[in-house]
User: What shape does this take?
Amino acid sequence: MLLPHRREDTLLILPGVWDRASARLLATAHGVRALATTSAGIAAAHGVPDGQYLDREEMLAAVARIVSAVDMPVVADIENGYGDVYLTVRAAIDVGVEGVSLCDALPGDGWERGRLRDLAEAARRVATARRAAEDAGVRLFLCARTEVWWSDTLSDPAARYAEGVTRLSAYRDEGADCVGAPGYVGDAAAVAELVDTLEGGPLDLLADPRLPDLATLERCGVCQLSTGSLLYRIGLSSAGAALTGLFDKGPAELGCALTYADLARLMEG
Assistant: This one.
C-alpha cells in the first residue's frame, strides 16, 4: 500500500536510517510513509567503510533492530547481495522487511566506484532475488540499481547514459519493481527523458541538490527519491560544526531542538 508496487501514483520519499533512534525519529517526519536503510550509515556506525565490510549477519541484525522499532515498511539496502543473493533475500524477509535494494557494484577497497558486475550476471542476480521472494510466498518490493553513474570506467557521458539505460532496462525485465540510478542528476527535461526512455521506469533517484524540486520530479514520473547516506552525513557534519561553534563562541552555540528527554521518549518501548 505504501511502496511503489502498492501505492497511488505519488512520489515516495525514502529516508535512509541506520539505527533504532534514527528510524523512530525520521518515521515521525511529515509525509514519511516508508523507510530505507543506508548501508553506508550502518557500516560507519559499526566503524567500517561502506561496501560489504559488514557481513550478511551483521548487516541484517542492524536491519532487524530498525524493523522492530517502527510500524511502517522498511526497504533494506542489501548492497551487492553479500555473496548468495537468494539466501540474503530470504534472510531479509525473515527479519521483516517489505523490500530490498540490490546494486550491481562489486565490493572493493573503499567500495571502489567503477567496478560493476557483468551485465548478464547482474541481471541474473536480480532474477534470483525475485525468485527468492516468490519461493517465500511474499510480494517483496525489489529495487535494482546500477552504479554506473558513479563509475570511473565510462568517462563519456553519452556512453554512461546508454549503459545505464541498458542495465536498468535489463533489471526491470528480470523482475525489479523499481530501478535506481544513484548519481544521476539533470534538469526536468533530462529526468523526464530518462523516465520516458525506461518506458515509465519506475525510477528511483538519489536525493541531490542539483535535482529539480519534488513536484517537478513527480511530474517527470520519478516514483521514488531516496536519501541514501545523506542524512547520516548531515548529522555528522552538524555535530562537527556544533563542536567548532563551542570552541569558537562557547556553549551558547549548542542549541538543539531534540532534548535529552525527547531522546529518552523516542527510545521507550
In short: The chain has one domain: 12-228. The mean pLDDT is 93.
